[in-house]
Automatic annotation (TrEMBL):
It comes from Rhizobium laguerreae. This is Xanthine dehydrogenase large subunit. Residues 31-139 form the Aldehyde oxidase/xanthine dehydrogenase a/b hammerhead domain. Signal peptide: none annotated. Its EC number is 1.17.1.4. One of its GO terms (molecular function) is xanthine dehydrogenase activity. Keywords: Molybdenum, Oxidoreductase. The keyword Chaperone does not apply.
């Protein structure tokens, strides 16, 4: 090897920030060697648990006979809510409205009433079917219409956003319209379902392996049900086979049940519900009913918006408060509303409590806003894209930057994103060609739409915007990394490892990624709100900064140079005129008794929120994007194909473009499923009938757009001081799929020569598309 080649190799590191590095477990995923909880070698004497579920939607429990359950071969213990040592509650928000096991009242079909512990999983599941429970049925309603008709209570105090004079300006507007939109829910359908293993320890100690996005919450919940302090509970998470928000709170009950049985019996316990049980007993994305009134002028410029967002929340509050709040935060999408009044209506229903799902209410709010634009476009006879651009937020100083919650939009790049995509996707020419095609086609109709994304990044609960990380450097120069974020396939571990590799200028192979555990980093926030990289990346960076400051001080003193003369270079450190390999440098620092460990911490600056007043700055910054989708529908059957999608998405200065591209593509397809094929359905007895792959249809590989062009906005850089000037990528791209629904709507509208808005609700299943086509034929 010649000298120049050697110098080139010395000049770079493998896996710096902003590099397209593969996911750290990618090779394990495709070969099946990645260990999930069910792959961990089972401890000796492991027992298995199963839950007994109610078969009524709303009823008093008159009596429970579990004798046949207990007598079933292999059963070791059967327990109910009365056997919970501490508090029989697993609510995530302290509302105490979600019992671990129902005792006197069941409030949804599939609610856990008792648990069975047996020698085998099969024995536990079979025994759980043998209970004899007498009920007294009570009135129930399982949807928003039923809740409204029965005067259902709200699961949490609603929120209102108000700015300007919407009542007056609505009256004064040149044009007005009213409408209603139904937006369906969504099942998480992760590859790995819920699972927990609990192992009892000495005294009051218990260790739990849980498939959860929120280890600290599992720690708290287990402590509460066992009546022990958090320091006695250790929760471990190496990876999840998908989370999407469904493992933020929904893993609580399985971890709690396993821990109770483990401490009672002194043996390891595993709970792994069947897919049907998992889907029946755990929450989903909230479905919404949006009622709206719009005031606008003949050009399509919005003057006033008044809208109410009713949501099916289920029997308890869970995360419905912040979910419906975020729906209102995104009810503006990318548009400035001069005068606005928005109200949430989180309704109680006799269904499983709905919960977090990628976007956390934002997609529902944003979808409603795009319906507003579509309604206005048809009313004034313009291309919806022109109406969108007319109503975009403006630049600072334009007087068009204030959100309904009184936060200024200071980083607005939506116009540039949309204009660039409009040009590269050839939107105008293709739209004209599609209109011409529809004019001459008898049965097949096409549609095209270009829709924007503006998504606020941060937890709206200010306290959650904090993170910790623990970094050790060992004598041989290898680095140990632990932080509070959890890995669910999104590449968080890889990105944070890149931050450390970049900070110390070492190859990423030198950084050991370790499982998330409450024993190392305490009081962690959920890996949610798209904030995993922002928070944990900065916490790791802070830990590295502390260690580097000590190392620089050590080197400056030992070699008698200035601090500026100590420079970290690829896999080595320059001290004055000499260069020392990184492992040798660390060994010398150890011998000099330099502390080579640090706990990093980060809290998001600038944010604050007053929910009661409906004012504040809940978001640190916004992520932007746009998508253009073309579809074809068969007007005889309602079936459709997605012919092409073009996406341009803003991730700031990407920490890892390869991973971020995967997140954008995956989020789009998941959003596509939400808006087209995925339909939740409860029967008149309150039973969820779409509880398995046979009845619930997620997108297949064949459902992706035939032409799928995805690009990151490489020119973008976060104006805020995030890690590497990057932006969050977890949730925002899901809303790119709104272009699919809007394109389907245009295709349907062509049947009536684009005279009226089709008001196509979501999900736009082939049946729903066909019914909309039939409506258009009668216009």
């Amino acid at each position: 090897m010649d000298k120049s080649t050697f110098e080139d190799r010395k000049a770079i590191i493998n896996g710096p920030m902003h590099g397209s590095l593969r996911h750290d477990s990618a090779h394990k995923h495709v070969t099946g060697t990645a260990d999930y909880i069910d792959d961990i070698p089972e401890p000796a004497d492991l027992l298995h648990g199963a839950v007994g579920l109610s078969d009524r939607a709303h009823a008093e429990i008159l009596s429970i006979d579990l004798s046949a359950v207990a007598a079933h071969p292999g059963v070791v213990w059967v327990f109910t809510g009365k056997d919970v040592p501490g508090i029989n509650d697993v609510s995530s928000n302290g509302s105490h409205d979600e019992p671990l096991l129902a005792e006197t009242l069941v409030q949804f079909h599939g609610q856990p009433i008792f648990a069975v512990i047996a020698e085998t999983r099969d024995a536990a599941r079979r025994a759980a079917q043998l209970a004899k429970i007498d009920y007294r049925d009570l009135p129930h309603w399982s949807d928003i219409d039923g809740a409204l008709a029965n005067g259902s209570p709200l699961v949490i105090t609603p929120m209102t956003l108000h700015r300007g004079e919407p009542e007056t300006e609505m009256t004064n507007a040149a044009m007005r319209l009213k409408g209603q939109m139904r937006i369906g829910g969504q099942e998480h359908f992760y590859l790995e379902g819920h699972i927990a293993v609990a192992i009892p320890g000495e005294d009051d100690e218990v260790t739990v392996w849980s498939s959860t996005q929120h280890p600290s919450e599992i720690q708290h919940i287990v402590g509460h049900v066992l009546d022990i302090p958090s320091n006695a509970v250790t929760v471990n998470v190496r990876r999840m086979g998908g989370g999407f928000g469904g493992k933020e709170t929904q893993g609580n009950q399985f971890a709690a049940l396993a821990a109770i049985a483990a401490k009672k019996l002194g043996r390891a316990i595993k709970f792994r519900p069947d897919r049907d049980e998992d889907m029946s007993a755990t929450g989903k994305r909230h479905d919404f009913l949006v009622d709206y009134e719009l005031g606008f002028d003949a050009e399509g410029r919005i003057h006033a918006v008044d809208a109410t967002y009713a949501a099916r929340c289920g029997f308890s509050s869970d995360l419905s408060g912040p979910v419906t709040d975020r729906a209102l935060f995104h009810a503006d999408s990318s548009y400035f509303y001069p005068h606005v009044h928005l109200t949430s209506k989180p309704l109680k229903t006799h269904t499983v409590s709905n919960t977090a799902f990628r976007g956390f209410g934002g997609p529902q709010g944003m979808l409603g806003a795009e319906r507003f634009i579509e309604e206005i476009a048809y009313a004034v006879g313009k291309d919806p894209l022109d109406v969108r651009k007319l109503n975009f937020y403006g630049q600072p100083g334009s007087g068009r930057t204030l959100t309904p919650y009184h936060q200024e939009v200071e980083d607005n790049i939506i116009a540039r994103i949309v204009e660039e995509l409009e040009e590269t996707a050839e939107y105008r020419a293709r739209r004209n060609a599609i209109i011409a095609f529809n004019r001459d086609s008898r049965y097949i109709r096409k549609g095209i739409a270009l829709t924007p994304v503006k998504f606020g990044i941060s937890f709206t609960m200010t306290a959650f915007n904090q993170a910790g990380a623990l970094v050790h450097i060992y004598q041989d120069g290898s680095i140990h990394l632990n932080h509070g974020g959890t890995e669910m396939g999104q590449g968080l571990y890889t990105k944070v490892a890149q931050v450390l590799a970049d900070s110390f200028q070492v190859d990423i192979d030198r950084v050991k990624i370790t499982a998330t555990t409450t024993a190392k980093v305490p009081n962690t926030s959920a890996t949610a709100a798209s904030s995993g990289s922002d928070l944990n990346g900065m916490a790791a960076y802070d830990a590295a900064r502390q260690i580097k400051e000590r190392l620089v001080a050590f080197a400056a003193e030992k070699w008698d140079v200035g601090a500026a003369d100590v420079v970290f270079l690829p896999n080595r450190v320059r001290v004055g005129e000499i260069e020392i390999p990184f492992p040798d440098f660390i060994k010398q620092a150890y011998l000099a008794r330099v502390q080579l460990s640090a706990a990093g911490f980060y809290k998001t600056p600038k944010i604050h929120w007053d929910r009661k007043a409906g004012r504040g700055t809940p978001f640190y910054y916004f992520a932007y994007g746009a998508s253009c989708t073309e579809v074809s529908i068969d007007t005889l059957t309602g079936e459709y194909l997605i012919d092409r999608t073009d996406i341009l998405h803003d991730v700031g200065r990407s920490l890892n473009p390869a991973i971020d591209m995967g997140q954008v593509e995956g989020a789009f397809v998941q959003g596509l499923g939400w808006l087209t094929t995925e339909e939740l359905w409860w029967d008149d007895k309150g039973r969820l009938r779409t509880h398995a792959p046979s009845t619930y249809k997620i997108p297949l590989a064949s459902d992706r757009p035939k032409i799928f062009n995805v690009r990151l906005a490489e020119w973008s850089e976060n104006t805020e001081a995030t890690i590497g000037r990057s932006k969050a990528v977890g949730e925002p791209p899901l809303m790119l799929a709104i272009s699919v629904l809007e394109a389907l709507s245009m295709a349907v509208a062509s049947v009536a020569n684009y005279k009226v808005c089709p008001r196509l609700d979501a999900p736009a299943t082939p049946e729903r598309v066909l019914m909309a086509v039939e409506r258009m034929k009668r216009v």
